[in-house]
What we know:
Elements: H1 5-18, E1 34-40, E2 48-57, E3 60-64, E4 71-80, E5 84-93, E6 97-111, E7 115-119, E8 123-125, E9 143-146, E10 154-159, E11 165-170, E12 185-189, E13 197-203, E14 206-213, E15 216-217, E16 221-224, E17 227-229, E18 232-238, E19 243-253, H2 258-273, H3 284-298, E20 299-300, E21 307-308, E22 313-314, E23 323-325, H4 332-346, H5 349-365, E24 376-378, E25 383-384, E26 388-389, H6 390-409, H7 415-431, E27 440-441, E28 447-449, H8 459-469, H9 472-490, H10 507-522, H11 526-544, H12 559-562, E29 571-572, E30 580-581, H13 587-598, H14 601-614, E31 638-639, E32 652-653, E33 656-657, H15 659-669, H16 674-680
Parallel strand pairs: 12-18
Antiparallel strand pairs: 1-2, 1-6, 2-3, 3-4, 4-5, 5-19, 6-14, 6-18, 7-8, 7-10, 9-13, 10-11, 11-19, 13-14, 15-18, 16-17, 20-21, 22-33, 23-24, 24-25, 26-27, 27-28, 29-30, 31-32
Amino acid sequence: MKITAGLRILVFTAVIVCSPACAPEDQTEFPPELSFQLNLKTAGNPSETIELTPQEYWERFLLTGGKALPVEISVRITEQAETLKILSVSILALEDVNLNLKGVLRVEGTAYEEAFFYLPGFWYRKNLRSPDGAPSMRSGRAWNVREDRLSVPMAGVYNNQTGRGVTVVRTDSIAKDALMPYKKGEIILHERTDVGSAGFDADGEEVMLTFGYPYSETPKTYIRKLTPDLATMAFQHMEAGEERVLNWEIRYSEPGNYSDFIRETWNYSYDLFSPEEVEEQRSDDEIKHVLTQFFVQSYTDAYELKGFSGVHLDIGACEKRGILETGFVGRVLLNAFNALEYGYETGDVVMSNMANQIFESYQNYGFTKGGFIREVVDFPGNYETDVYSIRRQSEGLYAILHYLNLEKTRKGEHPGMTDRARILLDNLVSLQENNIFPRKFNEQKQVIDSAGGSTSTAIIPLLMGWKYFDDPKYLESAKNAAVYVENEIINKGDYFSSTLDANCEDKEASIYASSAMYYLGLVSEGEERAHYFRLAEKAAYFALSWYYLYDVPFAPGQLLGDLDFKTRGWGNVSVENNHVDVYIFDFAEVLKRLSEISGNERLREMAGVIRSSMREQLLPVEGRMCGIGKVGYYPEVVQHTNWDYGQYGKGYYNDIFAPGWVVASLWELLSEGRLHDFFIQ
């Protein structure tokens, strides 16, 4: 079907009138660094790519292709100051058509080697910390991805020599998505999607930012952990007379360094999207009561070590597996402390008895001969790891010191566990070399992975050890670690290697760095205190860049869409693992306290968005089980984009999950002030 000439004029006039109003003199010249290409496809045939040429037409530019096109595309360009260009692109279908429109912005004066790229929650610098199989410069110089893979639908580049940055951000409401008939290759979508693409490219040494509608993913579609697949290009089917208006903003800045580029860009993005808190129904106490059902139902006492079975579970069965993990991902000891504190506060003897039995079992059987915590023990599988990590040891120590401190306030004495905590602290200090803690090691303290990206995970438990035992060597060790974190991680904007199941750029490295620096500031004075707080805020921006500022759309029939799930406030995980989760622990509180110190209201507001969004959206309760088999088992692998961790894909969870750490994270979110009070009591 084709549109008639008369209808064509009427509809195009309507597009002009309905576009953002602007006086004729506000129309700028068409930027020479900007170009567009149109991709057209008919079923059963390879797509055709047409380079488009701008021609001035009234208050817009028509994009022509040197031959008659089945669409009429016009662009309006306006400027706000010298740093911002606003693009409004109108697409009118003159006949039934399947199309994909791509925009390219050449970044003049930025050579490829000088470029640090930024796709929020997905790509930092050149992604060179990531292994083979994950997206990085080693596997391609040009990457384009779906917008819903990004915490902000944006592509950016920072020139590491000139200190200049450029970003392109989509400003439309991204409210609808369509089911994909398959996950790769050229795909015609007959239902509407609002999801476009963002990325970067290189023509020789010249850098380009890319954007488009609908989405495309090149050179590979990253479908699963360390599993790239064929490129994808989606074609939106439009019927004759149908129109779309698409909007982007191009922003230029001179931040001075990559960290400042991330900070300025996040502030700009936050103001642009202005995420609001998600409506809540339950109080913190009510949510904790629901989460206690995880403790009750997962408690296992069939082995020498007792604990909560919270890893490698089927989402439907939520069975007891007899696998206990001290730190991430099971967080057995932190959950034991949570249950103990709750039991004491509410008089719930079941909770406190379970928790005390767990700590007693770990005091008696939970440490190696060398004084390290037994990190991962699979009793049914007769397996136990003999490779230890600074992160799990630190997380276990964190929980033990909380436990000892709580018991001390109640006149409880645990000399056995106290001795074990002291030995573990001394072990950690002995592992430190040149201010760095190795990522992994064995019981003989031989380094297996020397990467220092997890160093920040040891700082808070060292500070707790200093406070509890009044031993200055633990404070000295924490401050020495902070020197490395400041110089090699925060100042370089290079956050990596803190996730145990992924060795790459990740959210948790920046969260740990920010929290560590905040609590170092809390126990310091004067300029040293102010210095640590500034570092904490600097790192916080990298952490915030992983958290969504908008709601990803889901197609009708996808579980998360049917549950009306809002992604704003949830964080993407890492370069390796592209799903969202509720990893937050004490970070929301750190944001609020940093806001009080610096007067930065955005930090406080975003903490509120995160808190409201994570607390109960996917909390399984009677009558609204959210696709999970048991009450209180909050889901973990929440798949919000074209990705699956092994099963089901966008709009669903993976079939295997680890609710242990999830419950621990939410519980700490709901226990504001707990760690703060440890240091100021």
